[in-house]
Amino acid sequence: MRHGTGQPGMKIKNEDYHIRDYRPGDEQAIVGLFDQVFGKRLTENQWRWKYVADGSIPPLRLAFDASGRLAGHAGAIPLRGWRRGRPLPFFQICDVMVHPDARGGLGDRNLFARLVRGLLGGVAERWPDAFAYGFPGQRPYRLGERTRVYGEVERARVVHRPARRNLLPLLGVRALDWNDARLNGLWMRLAPGFRLALIRDGDYLRWRYAANPFHAYRLLGLYWGTRLFGWAVVRSDHERLLIVDLLAPRRWLRLALAALDRIAASEGVGEVDIWLPGGWREAAGKRVESTEVVVTNMVWGLQIPTADVRDELYYTMGDLDIF
Fold first, then answer.
1. pLDDT tens, residue by residue, 111-151
2. Who's near 279: CB < 8 A, 6+ residues apart?
């Protein structure tokens, strides 16, 4: 979700930049710019896991100044999505970053706008029906809105739930293996209940969580008796249990969360946090807090209206690249 634009700096003419698609070998310059813009280290191995784990060339746009230094980058993580009963190409737009010396300018002179428009235009040309979304903070969101590349779906909200033991637990929770043969079948059984969502099957879980080089996660199966009806991806964060991802029938949400509250209490954790979209969020709990994150539909050249995304999108913390 990271988007680094900061305050406008010196203005540089368009012709001072050479903008092109990513080429293998650009990784060293990209992770160097990431450190300069975000002040956090990203290793080349972490970058490769994120963007090229399947061996394909991702649709990234890079801008170089006259000296050959990388001045800007707009990333798109290729994902597999689902909309209204059929697979759909998904892209998470992230790591949009511009070097402090290259910030500023209006319209076509703004490097942020040029990079994101070029990225989305390329996605739309190759995958005309694709859905692209992101999770910028409020400041970069406003810049993207002004340059007509972003549409606001909603402010992301976190539901805080107290960890507590239930007197009559109706659902069981047990550790589930990342390679469990039932994961794909479970997704196919539940997919009709999701109008716009990532394909949350076994391949996705193994890439996004089991092989994740940033965090360690646990996969918990949700059971009615012996029948697996859902799962939750969780990790501990100080005194909180984060439900990073969740796949369960909507009608079972309250029972699923109550079961996870019980697990948190048994582990001595005081609070359970989860992100869910409107419609799901109302059933998740009453203590809801707005975050600084804007759930964003990418609108430049792409076809799915923001109003439809607002009505259809299912997302969790796991849709972001930082949890």
1. 999 999 999 999 999 999 999 999 999 999 999 999 999 99
2. none
Weakest-pLDDT range from 12-26, 56-70, 73-87, 208-222 = 12-26
Superfamily of domain 158-290: Gcn5-related N-acetyltransferase (GNAT) (3.40.630.30)
Q: How far apart, in whole angstroms, are the C-alpha atoms of residue 281 and residue 277?
A: 6
- Specify the CATH superfamily of domain 3-157+291-319: Gcn5-related N-acetyltransferase (GNAT) (3.40.630.30)
Q: Are 153 and 176 in contact (CB under 8 A)?
A: no
| Pair type for strands 86-98 and 131-134 | parallel
Report the distance separating Cα 195 and Cα 35, nearest Å: 37
Mean pLDDT of 90-101: 95
Q: Where are the domains of the chain?
A: 3-157+291-319, 158-290
Determine the angle formed by the axes of helices 138-146 and 111-126, rounding to 10 degrees: 70
Under DSSP, is residue 46 helix (H, G, I), strand (E, B) or coil? Answer: helix
Cα–Cα distances (Å) from 308 to 67, 126, 311, in that order, read: 44, 22, 5
- CA proximity to 32, closest of 12, 18, 10, 47: 47
Q: Give pLDDT tens digits for 213-238.
A: 999 999 999 999 999 999 999 999 98
Ordered DSSP codes for 260-314: HHHHHHHTT--EEEEE--TTTGGGT-SEEEEEEEEEEEE-SS--S-HHHHHHHB-
